[in-house]
Input
Amino acid sequence: MVINFENNENLDLIFGALSDATRRGMLAQLSDGETNITALAAPYAMSQPAISKHLRVLERAGLIARSRRGRDHYIKAIPGPAEEAGGWIAYYAKFWRQQFDDVEAYLQANKGDTK
Amino acid sequence: MVINFENNENLDLIFGALSDATRRGMLAQLSDGETNITALAAPYAMSQPAISKHLRVLERAGLIARSRRGRDHYIKAIPGPAEEAGGWIAYYAKFWRQQFDDVEAYLQANKGDTK
DNA sequence: AAAATTAATAACCAAAAGGTTATATATTTA
DNA sequence: TAAATATATAACCTTTTGGTTATTAATTTT
Output
C-alpha cells in the first residue's frame, strides 16, 4: 500500500492542529492517558471556551476522541493521524537530508582547491 | 542530550508552515534538489507574490534556504527543522499508540464477558 | 539601449484563528 | 430542590493568513 501524500487535506488539519503550543501541550499531557477536560485545561491561563475551541481543533484533525461519562468529557489521543503526519515528514526528510549531506561531502572533498 | 519539546516556538513555525498544501508541495518538489523560484512556482495557479509569501513562511520556519545567482533565487530544503518536528510526533505517538493498543487488547481479552 | 525576465514589496481584502464575556445545558452534590 | 460543577455555544474583537493587483528593482537577453 502506497501512501498518497499529495493533496491530503487531513495533513492541513493535522499540521495545523500541531502548530499551537497549547494543543501540543494537551497532546503531551494525553501521553499519560485519558483525562477529563478540566484536568487537561488546568495548566493553561485561558478561559474555558478557549480550551473548548482548542479541543475542537484537535478533534477535527482526528487527533483526539471524546467520550462522556456524566457531565465529564474524557479525552484520549488517537495515534493514527499524527503517525500519518510523521510519515510525511520522515518520507521527505530522507531526501532533503541526503542532498544536504551530499553537498557537505562535496564541499569537504573540494576544501583545498584553488580557484 | 535531551530534547526540550516544551514551549518550543520553532515547532509553531514549522508545523504552521507544513499545514498548507502549497508549501508541502514545494517541499516535496525540493526533494529532487535545489530549484529556482520560477520552477518551484510552476505547478501552482496563483500569483507570483503569493508564491513569494509562501517561501517566506518556509524560510521563517527554517525549512528552506535561499541563494542568489544573478536574477534567479535558488531554493533548497534544510532537513533539520522538519526532523525536529518529526521527532516531536515520533516521541509522543509512541505513548498514544501504546495506550491505544492496550485498550484494544483489553477489549479483546474481555470480549465474551457477561455484565 | 530597449525589452524581457525574475523576484520583492506595498497596499489592500476576505476569511480564519485565537482569544474574550455572557449565557445555556446537563449532571452531580449538598 | 437548590447550588455547584463541567462543558458547549453565541456573539464579539483583534491579529494572522492567504490571496489579489500594482509597482519597483535587478539582471539578462535581444
Remarks:
- Residues 79-109 of chain B form the longest helix (31 residues).
